[in-house]
């Protein structure tokens, strides 16, 4: 349970203004089936973050034990600084849209998460904490907390949240997690 709260907070805050949140806004504008979009986000996130958490747990086995806190701490800080860089709105593949809201969301969301800040954060969190289940649960819930409101009230909500505040808050959270990873050896 120790991994759940940092995982949830890290992803929920980092996701604000992220390209996958913009993708959710795009999908909500394209499809009326909000529940299918949300289910697609859930399935894609579970698959993507499950694989990412497994990778993080596997990688930490091959790194010398004394290096782990420093690598994890530096990685958290790097992701924190990365969060300050706004995402570009990538071109979405219109070919998958013909398969409907659920399939299109699963495919596009899974692809958009590859190499994304929240995926990298999931790898780092899984390397930091011993509980894959709680990391995956936390990052998935964080993703859902950030995207479900967008699916339902996207354009209105995006106008109300100051993205700079969200980015700086996420940066601060990742930097604190990085420092704690280094000093709590």
UniProtKB/TrEMBL annotation:
InterPro entries: GDT1-like. One of its GO terms (cellular component) is membrane. One of its GO terms (molecular function) is metal ion transmembrane transporter activity. It is found in: Membrane. Its main location: membrane. The chain crosses the membrane at residues 36-61, 67-84, 96-112, 132-153, 165-184. It is a multi-pass membrane protein. Keywords: Membrane, Transmembrane, Transmembrane helix. Belongs to the GDT1 family. This is GDT1 family protein. It comes from Marinobacterium halophilum. The lineage of its organism: Bacteria, Pseudomonadati, Pseudomonadota, Gammaproteobacteria, Oceanospirillales.
């Amino acid at each position: 349970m120790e991994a759940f709260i940092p995982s949830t907070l890290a992803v929920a805050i980092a996701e604000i203004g992220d390209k996958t949140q913009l993708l959710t806004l795009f999908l909500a504008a394209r499809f009326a089936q909000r529940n299918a979009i949300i289910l697609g986000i859930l399935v894609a996130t579970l698959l993507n973050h499950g694989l990412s958490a497994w990778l993080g747990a596997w990688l930490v086995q091959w790194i010398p034990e004394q290096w782990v806190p420093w690598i994890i701490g530096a990685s958290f800080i790097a992701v924190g600084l990365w969060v300050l860089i706004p995402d570009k709105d990538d071109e979405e593949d219109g070919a998958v849209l013909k398969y409907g809201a659920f399939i299109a969301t699963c495919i596009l969301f899974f692809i958009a998460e590859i190499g994304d800040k929240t995926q990298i954060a999931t790898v780092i969190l899984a390397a930091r904490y011993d509980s894959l289940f709680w990391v995956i649960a936390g990052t998935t819930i964080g993703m859902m907390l950030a995207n479900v409101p967008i699916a339902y009230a996207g354009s209105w909500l995006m106008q109300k949240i100051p993205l700079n505040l969200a980015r700086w808050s996420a940066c601060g959270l990742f930097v604190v997690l990085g420092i704690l990873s280094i000093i709590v050896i």
